[in-house]
Design a protein that fits this description.
mainly alpha; about 80 residues
């Protein structure tokens, strides 16, 4: 049981760092992507890393949405951290 849990962890960790495919980029909710990154994955925005392989039609709009989501997620992360102190 522990071996399968460990394998699942490494698969999830690897996919969390992988750039998105063109199809994933086109379907992405960039606000939600930014919010999730701030809450659970990164202390700094990762928009460029996440979109390395993308061919977005409107990069500026996607980045604005991502950063708005990241700011909201980071604020929530900080609020949760303060509650535990």
């Amino acid at each position: 049981m522990e071996r399968s849990a460990l394998a699942a962890f490494f698969i999830l960790a690897a996919t969390a760092c992988a750039p998105m495919t063109t199809e994933e980029c086109a379907r992405a909710d960039w606000y939600a992507e930014g919010e999730t990154d701030a809450l659970y994955h990164s202390a700094s925005p990762r928009f460029e890393q996440r979109t390395r392989e993308c061919k977005l039609a409107d990069v500026a709009a996607a980045e604005r949405a991502y950063m708005d989501g990241w700011a909201a997620g980071y604020a929530e992360h900080e609020r949760r951290a303060d509650r535990h102190m």
